[in-house]
Amino acid sequence: MHLHVSPGMKNIGFLSFGHWSPSPHSKTRSAADVLHQSIELAEAVEELGGDGAYFRVHHYANQLGSPFPLLAAIGARTDRIEIGTGVIDMRYENPLYMAEDSGAADLISGGRLQLGISRGSPEQVVDGWRYFGYGAPEGQTMADVARANTEVYLQVIDGARFAEPNPNPMFPNPHPGPLGIQPQSPGLRRRIWWGSASNATGEWAAKLGMNLMSSTLKEDESGKPFHVQQAEQIEHFRAAWREAGHDWEPRVSVSRSIFALVSDADRAYFGHGRPEDDSFGAIDGFRGVFGRSYAAEPDRLIEQLREDEAIAAADTLLLTVPNQLGVDYNAHVVESILTHVAPALGWR
Questions:
Q1: Which PANTHER family match (predicted)?
Q2: CATH number, domain 11-345
Q3: I need a surface site. Which of 19, 63, 156, 273 has the fewest CB within 10 A?
């Protein structure tokens, strides 16, 4: 298979899982700590020249769970950096309410929202969506529901008019005929990403005109190394995009845990023989391959990353950060990649 390799320059951002813990070793002891530090880290990374601030979304956990207030706050406090999620679980979402929230957050940020969504990952509770009031109709699964919610969401942010207007409204309707969700944010439809764990769902995302977001976990479809399988997934996505005939170019992101060991703190935290191989195992009913982490002195790190085919094929790299180590250290993690690694690889 011929693998598409993007031009060298890359968007480089961070991906925070938004953990908090009362542990004395954690610098995020509460939800308030995580929220405020997330805003501060986005500001710091923007100042350093980074390109994106992305956040995981999990429910029933000591992690970030409601993305839109945070995204809107970051949008109001920054000027340039992209703001996104990786990813929102569409099993839990009312797509119309989500369209209102995302439209407002995107307008506040001046059109910088890059929204990652997916069918979701294993959660802290069993069938957690039931407590949110959602369930699968007979003969369907919650994965079907997530995809159906996604299709509705895409239609309404694209300006679909579907609601019968009241003939005697409190305020005059802006136009005759059915009404749609407000506010609309021009351009948001092209800034939706699907978090895909398989070749097939990547192809489905391409057909619907969503960008591709691929993490450090993928369905094992061949037994090959993780980065090779992920690069092949990206090529499947791009082939499906071409076949669909969209008139614009999609984006592709991959996430990685990458640490340049340039300080005593780096070596203390990450310099103790982290595994250099992928791992394979069962998760959420399928066999998965988990990508390795990278932690090495810059020269060694550059050589390792040069061999990662999926990073080469993507236009966006999201660096997973250890958010409980605090804003200053995480800004240092990102700065180290931007200054000691990215230029040598042609990413800057």
A1: BLL6902 PROTEIN (PTHR30137:SF15), LUCIFERASE-LIKE MONOOXYGENASE (PTHR30137)
A2: 3.20.20.30
A3: 273
Q: Is the pLDDT of residue 181 over 90?
A: yes
Q: How far apart are CA 254 and CA 232, in angstroms?
A: 13
| Structural contact between residues 37 and 323, judged by C-beta atoms closer than 8 angstroms | yes
> For position 65, what pLDDT does the model report?
92
pLDDT for the residue 7:
54
Tokens 């000691």 belong to which residue? 340
Tokens of 224: 């090959």
The string of pLDDT tens digits covering residues 260-279 is 999 999 999 999 866 677 77
Distance CA 344, CA 262 (A): 16
pLDDT classification of 2: cutoffs 50, 70, 90: very low
pLDDT at 3 over 50: no
Examine the pLDDT at 6 and tell me if it is beyond 60. no
Please state whether beta strands 252-256 and 316-321 pair in parallel, antiparallel, or not at all (unpaired): parallel
Inter-CA distances, 112 with 49, 106, 109, 187, 329, Å = 15, 6, 6, 10, 25
Joined together, the tokens standing for residue 94 give 């009312």
- Is the confidence at residue 192, as pLDDT, over 60? yes
Residue 37: CB atoms within 10 Å = 22
Paired strand residues for 259: 295
Q: Which of 94, 206, 188 is nearest to 148 (CA)?
A: 94
pLDDT of 233 reads 97
* Alpha-carbon distances of 63 from 58, 219, 323, 326, rounded to whole Å: 6, 24, 11, 15
DSSP secondary-structure letter at 293?
A: P
Residue 235 near residue 1, CB atoms below 8 Å: yes
